[in-house]
Amino acid sequence: MYDVIVVGARCAGSPLAMLLARKGYRVLVLDRATFPKDTVSTHYVQPSGLARLRRWGLLDRLTATGCPPITEAVWWFGEDLSVRGFAPPYDGVGMALAPRRTVLDALLVAAAREAGAEVRERCTVRSLLQDDTGRVTGVRYQCRGQEHTARAALVVGADGRNSLVARQTGPEKYHERPPLTVVYYSYWRGLSPERRHLNEVYLMGDKQIGVIPTHDDVCLIQAARPHSFYSTYRSDIEGHYHKAIAEAAPALAREMADGAERVDRFRGTADLANFYRKPYGPGWALVGDAGYHKDPLTGQGISDAWRDAELLADAVDRVWSGTEEWESALAGYERTRNAASELIYEFTCEAAGFDLDPMTRQLVRVVATHQEDADRFFGMIAGSVPAEEFFAPDNLLAMLGRLPADALAELTGTKGI
């Protein structure tokens, strides 16, 4: 009998298992993969995520793998409008990292094992066990051709946006948005050295291009299109990928054509729904993408998973240490998760929808010409500037007040009066 069974050993599951094991709980982690194993990902870890990794004693291990620190960002909103800067430090961390998932996930799995969690690879969970009241009491899983059952006081789904735990418990979904994009990416070596510490995003019409430096002197380059373009994109992934980059980022396209080498296959997905799920119920909980998922444009997924793993571990510990009741502690976990994510969720959905509203477009013009505003913009994305502070009416009005008079008049409808 375990205290916790965690389904999924990647960015949410292994940190949760590690944190609970460090608190003295008996934890079993099950994953169908054998690590190291790649997966579709933005790779991007915000400074807020790295600050947690440092608190857990793992940041030095990750930096020792040779992942280049990202210390500058540029977002292009057209050929002649760009926002350049970087987020203020978060708890003393002034960089981002974008590790290959073969490196990061293996590191996290090892940390869970070191903490005392039992991690079983090549094990696929088939179903949940439930008692007569419907309470989840364990799992049935297959491991190396053999069927097994395991029981626990709590089963946690850390098994991604298509979570089996969520499917079988049926939690409420809310704040849903349909999939907005289809994304494909690959890895490129031979780009200019200045890209080794730079994250670039191009938002041009109905195209989004992202360039992120990662391990082994390569950059991940992604090309996203509207979700409605999915069937067309799939008909010629490489052709449409290069066409999007040539139209949205012609200088980058020339650099790729002039001696750069693609070093891996194309990966991608259109399964990018935006939603929240109620993350708990009798005998079960959800963490990471299983409980909350959004478009990858702003690179939040890994950092959010680590935040929520920490929140859930603390909530469970309060329940089992007798300091708080289950419903109160887990409802608090949900409220805190939502409060920390709701504004960046809305911003991400708007930006990923290829159609910024007029006020957002004018705010972009402000942050493009005022460095302090630019750094705060990136800080809002990175978590070092609270989103509620950045989007506070007084702050937005102050930023709009820095617009040229004609632009402000156009926005407010007073031009020519």
From TrEMBL:
<feature type="domain" description="FAD-binding">
    <location>
        <begin position="2"/>
        <end position="347"/>
    </location>
</feature>
<dbReference type="Pfam" id="PF01494">
    <property type="entry name" value="FAD_binding_3"/>
</dbReference>
<dbReference type="InterPro" id="IPR036188">
    <property type="entry name" value="FAD/NAD-bd_sf"/>
</dbReference>
<keyword id="KW-0560">Oxidoreductase</keyword>
<dbReference type="InterPro" id="IPR050407">
    <property type="entry name" value="Geranylgeranyl_reductase"/>
</dbReference>
<protein>
    <submittedName>
        <fullName>NAD(P)/FAD-dependent oxidoreductase</fullName>
        <ecNumber>1.-.-.-</ecNumber>
    </submittedName>
</protein>
<dbReference type="InterPro" id="IPR002938">
    <property type="entry name" value="FAD-bd"/>
</dbReference>
<dbReference type="GO" id="GO:0016491">
    <property type="term" value="F:oxidoreductase activity"/>
</dbReference>
